[in-house]
Every structure is written in structure tokens, then in C-alpha cells.
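Format notes (please read before filing issues)

Several people have asked whether sequences and C-alpha cells are stored in separate files. They are not. Every record keeps both together, in the order shown below: the sequence lines, then the C-alpha cell lines. Line labels are part of the format and must not be stripped during preprocessing.
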Amino acid sequence: MRILIVADPIESFKTYKDSTYAIMQAAVARGHALAFCGQAQLWLEGGSAWADAQPLELSSPQLGEPGHDPHGWWRLGAPRAEKLAAFDAVLMRKDPPFDLEYVYSTYLLDHAVREGARVFNDPRAVRDHSEKYAIAEFPEFTADTMVTRDPARLRQFVQKHGEAVFKLLDGMGGASIFRARAGDPNLSVIVETMNQFGARSVMAQRYLPQIADGDKRVLLIGGRVVPFALARSPKLGESRGNLAAGGTGRAQPLSARDREIAESLAPRLHARGLFLVGLDVIGDCLTAVNVTSPTCFRELVEQTGFDVAAMFVERLEVEVRAEVARDA
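Then the structure lines:
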């Protein structure tokens, strides 16, 4: 296959932990050809969706490890204008934030899909799944949750549960997450800071003390469940397990509840075009459904030996063959 990867600038990759890099390695190992571009290299003209795509070759993976030349692991060829539909698969691996430019990219990728391009994840499905709000569809798996712009309701939610977590719906990497306690003299300040006196919607969730055991990332690939989770434990004094917030990741087999949640959601999300999904689970509760650029591949393979990237590419091959057969 010829695979186009749309991502952040390649020189920004931290290859020792980057899941997109792991996908690239697995694709090359299975004989696939890679091309690369950023969001800014996508455009629409003459009724078609195009990319300035650069052929991508990978060098020795050791060159990408810490302490080595950070640019020594890749070689990009000259850019060439190609229709997105000319590739066997297009992988949208641009990291959040999910801002307006990201939304515009999904419109353009939507256009490419109508022209016959195979885009993973499906751009419309990505646009329709707010990663935090998406849990509202699955209340049987979630802790008590509220989404509101009303400051009084947020304060009442904290009083009801004693402790709650506040999140902005467009937050990422653990940013702008507050743990609020009843009786805290700063509670009103926290609420005002979060929702800007009613101007911004805030998600409130009942605080789950099981965060001490890790915020688990459970991966779904092509409707299948990866058998290990990465439990991201907060650093001392923190209540956020996100790796970007200083948490540490510990791989572990899925619990019975993890598997129940994952196996329930996997076929439904896959049917919507969500090929790769990262579920966040704290204790027995689903807390987020990540669809933009889920990670944790490298940590899982290093700690368990289970090659998540190889599973990704194998499932991608199956998906592309099935779509080609349907289009024939």
C-alpha cells in the first residue's frame, strides 16, 4: 500500500515515545510505502482534495533514540501534488488541539472521502465525537457527569458529591483540569476561572479516588480490543494521570470491567468509521473517548512485548482490502 500520513512537523517527533513513528516502522516492516505532509499541505482545488506529499524513508531506528541525532531517522523526498484519493490509505495523525483549523481539515478530508479516499479515522466521525462529551452516550459505564455553563449548577454538583473534577470540553493532555472540594473557600474562584462567568461549558464528573491506581488508556483498533492497558499514575501531589502532566505509565492486562467497556464500544465505534480509539478508564468508569490521535503504542510494546503498531497496520490492511472490494 501507499500510505499518506498527515501529522505535526516530522522534526518535532520524539521517536522514543511517538505512536505515529511506531506505526511508520510497522508499515515499512510490512512492505508499505510512506508519504508525509502536514495540515498546511492539504488543499482543495478544481473540485478535488490534494496534498503536497513527500515520499518518506526511515533510517535506523536507533538514530531516533534520546542522545542521538533527532533528525537522523528520516529522509523526505521532494513534495509532489497528489490527490488524496490516489493513496491506498490516509492516516490523520495530527495531534490536538481540535481547533478551527483541525475542523477545516476534516471538511477537506471529508471531500477526499467522497472522491474515494480511505481516511482513518473517518473525518466526519472525528468531528462528531467530542472526546470528552462522547461519554454521555454511554451512561452505563460512566460516573455521575454534568455539562453546563451555569456556575450555580457546578457548585451544587460539588456539594452533592463532596468532590468533583472540572474539565473544559476542548482541553487536552490534562490541561485545565481542576479537582474541586465542597467547603473549599476557593470553589467559586475555580468555577469562575473554568466557565468564565457562564461563558464556557464545563464538564463536571464525580471524583474517582481510583485515579491513584492510574488513568487507564484502553486501545481499540479496527473494532478489536488491545489486551493491555497503560495505567497512567499521577505524580506525587497531582490528581491527573496524563503523561503530558507528568504521570508515569504502567502496562497491565485489562480488567474484567475494562474489557466489558471496550468490547461494548469497539464494534459501535468501528461501525462509525473510528478505526483507532483510545478509551480512558478510571477504576470502573469510562471518562473519555479519544479519536484524534490516540497514543501509548510504544509504552505498551516496551513493557509487554505486544506490538500495538503491528496490530494497527495488519488491521489497516484488512480494512483497506474490504473497502477496495466494496468499491469494485
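For reference, the curators noted about this record: The chain is about 30% helix and 30% strand. Residues 308-327 form the longest helix (20 residues).
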